[in-house]
DNA sequence: CTGAAAGCGCTAACAC
DNA sequence: GTGTTAGCGCTTTCAG
């Protein structure tokens, strides 16, 4: 690779010091009262040489790189990819560039990414934290590194965080089902202590309670991230098992769970919503061709990312950063899958 | 943000020069013959202070940052997100971190990203180039910046590039259709001169020719990236129009086109494959619940990304980089949608 | 064995 | 008005 042209090259060519070049190129010729002639000359040579400032050098000088680190669970997951896209946009608007990495919900990968990004002197981090990573996050706090959690947080840790209204969203989803006559409502969620999941579960339970329905523990199935596919399949089969008081509706805590569950429901030839009402948290392309339209909670991903970047930048630019919790409202897109329950079901 | 701990802090604390610290921390104590005692002490203090090397400073020193720039069309598109994921993985394996950005198929955004990444002194670029960006790419060449194109390239430009076997893939897809008895095969593609699309189109035409079918220009519909949805819808309606010799099979050049087209086909109540054979280039989650399984060409995205990174790294590390064209084989996943055409169709 | 010092590219306080 | 220089954190040559 050829040597890139530096401020020094320009200085030599024009016959001035690098200082003058720097002043002129940063539009500070007024303050430094650089001569008109010389300024013009410098600009011309810079253009001729196709000069591009070295942001690495500038970063070293200023101790800030105008780079953000983004750690998501998995960038290939459309949910996170969509967040990444808006983050990129908002960051760019503010003159920042984004480094990214995927944690795969694994503690060691998360720690590695944090270390790598810090070594690269990012100005701040946007993180979808992994379960059990409190100590990693706390270290950021003690080190005074600006960061914001996104999508999920910890109940036992005071941090800036931007999330969806998980509780309300799931509450209103389940309420929609109870209002439509469903009484035995099951839920499949991921088995994690992270707040987004806990809040969704709480929303589900609270909605049942407010509808005067007594929650039954067998209705709630928690599956691990690892081989969630099999586990979701098993959970669905248990929940709809005819021999033991099957549920009449199901809510799914994420789109990945939904898609997998719908496959089983389809394979079992259950009719949605007549046999089983359905609501999903988040949408999926796969809903497109399911034989009936799926009711789902639509998070405002765009707003979440925007707020995440803005909150982070506020932190970066403030001398006394303060913890900020942002909750972004979601909407519910009503399809056929949560439709009114048939009152009288003919038992054959 | 608190001051991060530097080599200097360690040196002061131990009471040696920064040089020694540098040697020890880089495992070069042997060459520099640093004393055992002192080395141990340095290491201890470094650990105590939780020292993280400043890669920015190192980058400035070495003129290399161990950072790659990735420019895709749109990171929120699962296709590119999946590529990004594997690139991240392969880059990490080699000690690189990835900056990313989306070009939206737009020339100015592409140029902006290139500039930004170069200013940040990335060691190389992986680019899915935008139509008409030859000059941008050529400038990289003249500047001697290592880069590799991915997914698509230019027919009029000699560059390193990693792509799928677009021609063969589409050829064999169409051959599958002709072998199964389809004779009037249409195609919907994006309207772009980029090689991936041109190669797919050529594969389609060549397969027709080899099957003894004369290509009809009205069979090939090219739609622009912008509002492709409407345009695809219109194209499908034209191709299946009963009044004017409708096609009996369709191939789609990308998954986004496929999903949109299938929606229309579904809405029009056409039966796949009886009324219409279907093959898609690339898969989509949405195929999951289409009423019949879709035959599709499966690119080896993992291999493409891996090769892209490897080719780029070879370029970066070689004094005399050479242009390398890598073609990654794809497979065809056969579903029901391309099944044998019913010989005698009962006309009502 | 150890350390001073130069230099990567850039900026800004401070001389001249 | 204009230019010198120190220094950001790190590496490495060369002198002690």
Structure description:
Two copies of one chain form a homodimer. In chain A, α11 (228-239) packs across α12 (255-267). Chain A has 13 helices and twelve strands. The longest helix of chain A is centred in the C-terminal third of the chain and has 17 residues, at 301-317. In chain A, 46% of the residues are buried. Chain A has 348 residues and is an alpha/beta fold. In chain A, α8 links the parallel β3 (124-127) and β4. Chain A has helices at 7-14, 18-25, 29-32, 36-49, 55-62, 78-93, 107-119, 134-143, 166-179, 195-210, 228-239, 255-267, 301-317, and strands at 67-72, 97-102, 124-127, 147-150, 161-164, 185-190, 220-223, 249-252, 277-281, 295-298, 325-328, 331-333. In chain A, the strands form two sheets. In chain A, strands 2-1-3-4-5-11 form a six-stranded parallel beta sheet, with helices on both faces. Chain A folds into three domains: 7-53, 434 Repressor (Amino-terminal Domain) (Orthogonal Bundle), CATH 1.10.260.40; 62-163 and 301-328, 3-Layer(aba) Sandwich (Rossmann fold), CATH 3.40.50; 166-299 and 332-344, 3-Layer(aba) Sandwich (Rossmann fold), CATH 3.40.50. Helices cover 44% and strands 16% of the residues of chain A. Chains A and B meet through α5, α6, β2, α7 and α12 of A and α5, α6, β2, α7 and α12 of B. β2 of chain A pairs antiparallel with β2 (97-102) of chain B. Chain A binds a DNA duplex (16 and 16 nucleotides) through residues 6-8, 16-23, 26, 28, 32-35, 38, 53-54, 56-63. Chains A, B: Residues 5-62 form the HTH lacI-type domain.
């Amino acid at each position: 690779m050829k040597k890139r042209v530096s401020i020094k090259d320009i200085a030599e060519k024009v016959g001035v010091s690098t200082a003058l070049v720097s002043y002129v190129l940063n539009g500070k010729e007024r303050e430094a009262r650089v001569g008109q002639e010389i300024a013009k000359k410098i600009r011309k040579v810079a253009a001729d040489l196709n000069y591009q400032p070295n942001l690495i050098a500038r970063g070293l000088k200023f101790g800030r790189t105008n780079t953000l680190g983004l750690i998501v669970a998995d960038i290939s997951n459309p949910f996170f990819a969509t967040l990444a896209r808006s983050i990129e946009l908002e960051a760019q608007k503010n003159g920042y560039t984004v480094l990214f990495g995927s944690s795969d919900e694994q503690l060691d990968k998360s720690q590695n990414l944090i270390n790598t990004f810090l070594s690269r002197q990012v100005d701040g981090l946007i993180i979808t934290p992994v379960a059990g990573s409190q100590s990693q996050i706390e270290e950021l706090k003690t080190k005074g590194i600006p960061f914001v959690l996104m999508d999920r947080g910890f109940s036992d840790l005071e941090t800036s965080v931007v999330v969806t209204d998980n509780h309300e969203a799931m509450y209103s989803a389940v309420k929609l089902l109870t209002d439509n006559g469903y009484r035995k409502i099951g839920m499949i969620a991921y088995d994690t202590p992270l707040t987004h999941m806990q809040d969704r579960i709480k929303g589900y339970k609270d909605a049942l309670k407010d509808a005067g329905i007594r929650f039954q523990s067998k209705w709630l199935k928690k599956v691990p991230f690892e081989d969630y596919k099999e586990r979701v399949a098993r959970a669905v089969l248990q929940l709809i098992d005819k021999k033991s008081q099957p549920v009449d509706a199901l809510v799914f805590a994420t789109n990945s769970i939904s898609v997998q569950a719908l496959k089983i429901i389809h394979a079992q030839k259950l009719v949605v919503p007549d046999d089983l009402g359905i609501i999903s948290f988040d949408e999926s392309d796969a809903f497109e061709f399911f034989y009936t339209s799926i009711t789902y909670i639509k998070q405002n991903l765009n707003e979440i990312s925007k707020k995440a970047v803005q909150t982070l930048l506020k932190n970066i630019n403030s001398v006394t950063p303060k913890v900020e919790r942002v909750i972004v409202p979601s909407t519910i897109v009503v399809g056929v899958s949560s439709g009114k329950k048939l009152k009288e079901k003919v038992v054959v």
